[in-house]
From TrEMBL:
Protein name (database record): AcrR family transcriptional regulator
Pfam families found in the cross-reference section: TetR_C_11 (PF16859), TetR_N (PF00440)
DNA-binding region ranges: 45-64
Keyword Transferase: no
Residue ranges of every copy of the HTH tetR-type domain listed in the record: 22-82
Keywords in alphabetical order: DNA-binding, Transcription, Transcription regulation
Statement: the UniProt record of this protein carries the keyword ATP-binding: no
Amino acid sequence: MRSGKVSGMTEVATARRSRITPEREAELYEAVLELLREVGYDALTMDAVAARTRSSKATLYRQWGGKPELVAKAVRHSKPGGSLGEIDTGSLRGDLHALTLRSDDCQMEQNSALMRGLAMAVHENPDLLKAFKEHLIEPELAEFRLLLSRAIDRGEVRADNPAAEFMMHMMIGAFAARTLLDEQPPTQDFLLSYIDAVVLPALCAPNPAT
């Protein structure tokens, strides 16, 4: 009886968490991103989100548990639609170019600025770091590994190439370095050139022993 009761409570909780429609969820995420750009993570409160979205704070906590998960999921939602795993052009270069072209220059600039603003908060807040790893970092790592594994299967990349481990580091590094060194936002042209000049030569380098 007790296990049945617990199971019933779990079903009720799940039903309560799923009451928000996809349209309403997208609206809430956009409001969270707007507030992040306006005040930053530390000053963002669930009260402010509730007021901006005309929702109750209880609903926000019931659906997301707290600010870290809400912010992480909002940032994840702002990423271009679809999974990286759905990209399959037949070549690693084609896949990476297709990935880059999913965001226009305006979106890249907004996302770059948002992530710079969140960088310090992520490292200072263990709960936010945990939420980012769960909802952003680990899913994207898994999808990049899928792109890479297909390239290995096609013979484009050696399975023992040490650069393969740093594929995502190289891709993310381009975003950070563009603003830090050049004082300009990342753009499609910059990233496509970076992929061709840096990422592909590192990943597709021939075996030096041959």
